[in-house]
Amino acid sequence: MHYFEYRDGELFAERVPVRRIAREVGTPAYIYSLATLRRHYRVFDQAFARAPHLVCFSVKSNSNLAVLRTFAREGSGFDIVSGGELFRALKAGADPKKIVFSGVGKKKEEIEYALNAAILMFNVESEQELIFLNDVSRGLGKRAPISLRVNPDVDPETHPYISTGMKKSKFGIDIKRSAELYKKALSLGNLEVIGVDCHIGSQLTSVGPFVDALSRIREYLDRVLVGYLRKEGANIRYLDLGGGLGIRYKDEEPPHPEEYAAALIHGLEGLDVTLILEPGRVMVGNAGILVTEVLYLKETDEKKFVVVDGGMNDLIRPALYGSYQAIQPVVERKSETIVADVVGPICESGDFFAKDREVPRPQPGDLLAIMSAGAYGFTMASNYNAHPKPPEVLVDGDNFYVVRARESFDDLIKGEVIPPVLQ
Ligand code: LLP
Questions:
Q1: pTM
Q2: Sorting pLDDT into bands at 50, 70 and 90, what band is 192?
Q3: Would residue 308 be called left, alpha or beta, if left means φ above 0 and alpha means ψ between -120 and 50 degrees?
């Protein structure tokens, strides 16, 4: 559900014509709908209303300050994976007591920053990290609240690059070793054991793998951990099930948050914990589009190419995962349709938004909307081929705001220096 709709053949973001935004800010440009962001948060949060829970929006999916502020105002916490994401979340007004810190490679400065900010918990991913976190905490005279991120070895049935909870993945701790590591955590002195965490993957389109992961953790908790940990004086009061709920890009039919929540809450029965969820894509994916302008229609004997001004530098998902993004004309055109690749200006054959896609024959200057671009769009953008990053625009009803300016050529060389030897 989102608020990008056609009126009289023209695409609107809420009540603003996308064409007007493109005229004022140029292309390519990301456009987000505030009403959609709010709606997604509320639907998701409401779905869990029956259970003690905390929604921690996954900052990696969209880290624009205005987007983070929107969720913070709704009461959201945040899932972060770096010092930079912590900085962004705090700048946006996040409550540090609602921040969880995941990731396999936390550095000393990042750990210190998070300890000083007094975040809710660290999701620890290895034995060495556990020991290191204890040392850094001791150095600051603090105790770090922790969960162990366990790896339940469940196949999330998604793209291998975004599948994280199987035995061979770099993430998490083998669930069978977790009792041993909890024991270690309790013995170290500067750690406070408060939870269990897992995240099995992203863009999941059925509840099955989530339920399997939960039941494996549950079984383990019931059998080994809870009794043992209670005896040792630890209090497991959070169960973090990560993010991963998918969205519709093409014809997927992911479960509604209600269905997802019902399945998880059912699996939690009798367990006295606060559930933490780390949704990213489902909050922002369909709340954003990337608008790009057609530069040329290039026809060869073999193929047709619609060359647009946005590229893999702006939105890398199709190039990196071969993923599908719907492409719609900003102003509907009653021309014949053609089958073409929609490609960007980058000097790589992997630079495409669509392959062999049926589109209305475009004219140079036409605007296209790449739909469902709000998650892992701008956050994965780069300056490859020295393209400044596009602006981000937030629409609210009849108004729109540039919430991140288009980068300039000067931004491209910020921090670069020609050393004396070359002067
Ligand atoms: N929590 C953790 C620990 C994660 O690693 C992730 C995503 C999330 C939460 C949020 O997952 P979500 O609800 O968004 O599925 N760039 C890829 C997706 C990478 C996901 C990485 N981890 C893409 O564009 O599809």
A1: 0.97
A2: very high
A3: beta
